[in-house]
Design goal:
The protein has 111 residues and is of the alpha+beta class. It has 4 helices and 3 strands. Strands 1-3-2 form a 3-stranded antiparallel sheet. A hairpin with a 2-residue loop joins strand 2 and strand 3. Helix 2 packs across helix 4.
């Protein structure tokens, strides 16, 4: 299925600071400040990189967009998706953890 529109509900719905600013302005807020807050996100942890990858892949396919994409798929397709996600996360495994770059906003406004 095609990816959802950029502003669709989900973890990336507020990726664009212009959208955040517009929503707050329309709601009557002012003094809007939007600052980036980038930090690592731990997806999996274990005694080994393999264990951490298993945990991270399981989390990725049980929540969010991947979970929605494979929800109604046959088990064989689900297993292929888990293997593909695990493979994609492998470069991010080190010292028994899988960590990705996380980007969020700290938003303040007044009314």
């Amino acid at each position: 299925s095609p990816p959802p529109p950029a502003d669709a509900p989900g973890p990336f719905a507020f990726a664009r600071p212009e959208r955040i600013r517009d929503i707050l302005l329309q709601a009557g807020f002012g003094g809007i400040a939007i600052a980036p807050c980038d930090q690592p996100i731990l997806l999996g942890q274990g005694e080994s990189d393999a264990e951490a990858l298993d945990q991270a892949a399981r989390l990725a396919v049980e929540t969010g967009p991947v979970a929605r994409a494979i929800r109604d798929q046959p088990d064989a397709t689900r297993q292929q998706a888990i293997a593909a996600v695990r493979h994609a996360l492998a470069p991010h495994a080190s010292a028994g953890s899988v960590t990705l770059h996380g980007a969020t906003w700290i938003v303040t406004a007044s009314r």
